[in-house]
Amino acid sequence: MDAEEFVAVIRKHVQEQAVKDLIKTFTAPPGRKPRDMLVKVSEWRARLTSDEQKLLDDVIAESVRVALFGLFAVIDGARVVDNDVERFIIAARDDQGNKVELNEDANIDLHGEFAPD
Question: Which residues pair with 99 in a beta bridge?
Fold first, then answer.
């Protein structure tokens, strides 16, 4: 896996899935006794027009993207959370135990992949 493949799997398995999960949760909160806030959001969402629901879904998608942008800005060192840390390194280990550092090269800009268009 390289940085490009890593970003692709994050988009699919984190970003897209989080958006789907949130839309599903805000439409029909899970569980026998869902949290009050989720029930209120679900009831409110049900009263929206289809265009307004689509807008809400877009807001959810944008919120997830911004969260990933922030996370990767920290990893890249563009957003400082610890003055003693220049940047974080993401490594993958394959099934044979080989380790590959996905963002060891300082020119790799993971947060840019989630930046506003």
Answer: 93
